[in-house]
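Weekly sync, protein design subgroup
Attendees: M.S., D.O., the rotation student, P.L. (late)

Item 1: inverse folding check
M.S. brought a backbone from last month's batch and wanted to see whether the design step gives back something sensible before we order anything. D.O. pointed out we never logged the input encoding, so this time it goes straight into the notes. Structure tokens as presented (551 positions):
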């Protein structure tokens, strides 16, 4: 009796365990994730087929596929006026041509990463379908790199195009015979090219029409290229100046202020009032950007509600501007009872100044009588002293032509000491802008760094004879110091904060003191830029000497 009871108990327990395990839902492990892209099993017609005259193509893959970003990924060389209709259905890719194919021509269709598997989205990278309407597939190729002409950084997504006609107007008018796009490293490769001589052109095609339009960055080879086998050609990409000057936009930017943007540097701007005349004592200032294409026009408001100005550059009239003016009363009303005053910015507000650097100021409106600031309005003291420090210098303009918004004070007698703490007080009425507004009380507390914080760089420049602009750059390619060596081969850069630097040398062919881009219409390449790729480490309280041999 007990043994039978025991056997029954075992059977019941086993049944309960089995029932419990059946009730638990355990997800399948699924196995290893599929990382393999689709594989093309069959082409109809075959890839690399000759005497191709089909209007459709079918490519069968080993798994279900989808298309992603086909509009940007697909590259057809030579290009077609009408992009083929391309569809993915199940495991098959369908291509339908919408225009007749050229005779005796090899076509290359590069799909980039557009073809992917359906479930894991694994891309089939740079998948190509090639065919020829002639009796053989052309086999010549051209490869190289496209880099920025100034920074030498690689340019991604740039078209490198070959034309079988070599006259200069071709990039403006015709589609190329062959082309390819650069990758992330600026590299390109054009394959299956017919033997011949070609004009080579690089283009950052903003509107996607495969033609050079004003404002698009370009690069070009000075001479046509005769392809022999696997050839190489590199390009420097630049944005050339516009051929015809025009006013892009103008706007009333505030009280007595108009902003104008042109498509190229302005040389002889004139703004002529048509519905009024500036009376005696009127104040007018013109401020031009460093690039020369942006103009800010300041004027003391005339006694009219609206202004009509004729815009001209040298002897050509570009536009007529009409604006309803903002009245002085409205400006004062917008202050909501607060006293109207000019706005002033200064590097002294940062709290720490570099040794041997001026205190700089920037006003939001052009200033008046900066050469005659009363000394009683400009008070400089040591942080712990009540006695004023003799200014040791005079307020003066920064060097900017026709510009009265930027000015600075330079400690010419060295009354400011390293590691010193100072208090600058500018009393009301020290500055007056062109509209008659004056400053409120301005206070700045700042310190000067210790001399031992800085390092010094002595550069021994060994370069061929010529005119150069030497630039010391920080890690973000910002210009820290600049010099024009001339015949001088030893350059000293003092008061450099510790950090990593590198150097850029511009061959200043036209001797205007700056780098100039190229001009395709004049067959001018950008001015040559040479980088010293060896980084320079500046340490505090340390003198660094570098020899740079430029070939």
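Designed sequence read out in the meeting:
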């Amino acid at each position: 009796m007990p043994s039978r009871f025991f056997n029954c108990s075992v059977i019941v327990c086993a049944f309960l365990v089995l029932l419990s395990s059946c009730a638990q839902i355990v997800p399948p492990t699924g196995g290893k994730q599929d990382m393999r892209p689709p594989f093309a099993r069959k082409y109809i017609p075959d890839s690399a087929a000759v005497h191709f005259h089909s209007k459709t193509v079918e490519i069968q893959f080993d798994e279900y596929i989808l298309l992603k970003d086909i509009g940007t990924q697909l590259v057809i060389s030579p290009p077609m006026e009408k992009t083929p209709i391309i569809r993915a259905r199940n495991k098959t890719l369908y291509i339908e041509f919408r225009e007749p194919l050229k005779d005796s021509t090899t076509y290359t269709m590069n799909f980039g990463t557009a073809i992917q598997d359906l479930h894991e989205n694994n891309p089939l990278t740079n998948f190509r379908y090639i065919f020829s309407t002639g009796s053989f597939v052309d086999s010549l190729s051209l490869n190289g790199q496209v880099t920025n002409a100034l920074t030498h950084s690689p340019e991604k997504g740039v078209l490198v195009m070959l034309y079988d006609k070599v006259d200069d107007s071709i990039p403006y008018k015709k589609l190329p015979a062959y082309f390819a796009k650069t990758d992330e490293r600026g590299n390109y490769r054009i394959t299956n090219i017919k033997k011949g001589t070609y004009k080579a052109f690089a283009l950052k095609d903003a509107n996607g029409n495969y033609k050079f339009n004003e404002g698009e960055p370009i690069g070009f080879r000075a001479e046509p290229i005769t392809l022999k086998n696997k050839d190489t050609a590199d390009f420097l990409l630049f944005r050339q100046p516009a051929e015809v000057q025009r006013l892009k936009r103008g706007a009333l930017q505030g009280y007595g202020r108009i902003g104008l943007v042109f498509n190229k540097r302005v040389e002889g701007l004139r703004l002529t009032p048509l519905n009024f005349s500036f009376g005696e004592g009127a104040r007018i200032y013109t401020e031009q950007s460093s690039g020369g294409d942006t103009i800010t026009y300041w004027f003391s408001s005339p006694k009219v509600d609206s202004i009509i100005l004729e815009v001209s550059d040298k002897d050509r009239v570009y536009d007529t501007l009409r604006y309803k003016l903002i009245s002085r009363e409205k400006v004062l009303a917008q202050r909501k009872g607060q006293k109207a005053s000019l706005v002033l910015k200064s590097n002294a507000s940062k709290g720490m100044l570099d040794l041997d650097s001026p205190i700089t100021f920037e006003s939001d409106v052009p200033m008046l009588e900066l050469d005659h600031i009363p000394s009683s309005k400009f008070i400089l003291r040591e942080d712990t002293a009540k006695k004023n420090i003799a200014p040791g210098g005079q307020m003066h303009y920064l060097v900017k032509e026709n510009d009265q918004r930027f000015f600075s004070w330079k400690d010419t007698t060295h009354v400011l000491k390293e590691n010193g703490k100072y208090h600058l007080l500018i009393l009301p009425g020290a500055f007056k802008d062109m509209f008659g507004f004056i400053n409120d009380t301005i206070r700045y507390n700042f310190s000067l760094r210790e001399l031992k914080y800085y390092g010094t760089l002595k550069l021994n420049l060994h370069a061929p004879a010529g005119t150069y602009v030497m630039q010391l750059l920080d890690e973000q390619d910002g210009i820290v110091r600049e010099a024009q060596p001339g015949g001088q081969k030893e350059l000293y850069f003092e008061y450099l904060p510790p950090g990593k630097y590198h150097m850029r040398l511009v061959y200043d062919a036209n001797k205007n003191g700056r780098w100039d881009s190229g001009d395709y219409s004049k067959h001018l390449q950008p001015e040559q830029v040479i980088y010293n790729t060896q980084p320079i480490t500046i340490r505090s309280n340390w003198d660094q000497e570098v020899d740079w041999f430029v070939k």
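Discussion: The longest strand covers residues 529-538. The two ends are 108 Å apart (CA to CA).
Action: P.L. to compare against the previous round before Friday.
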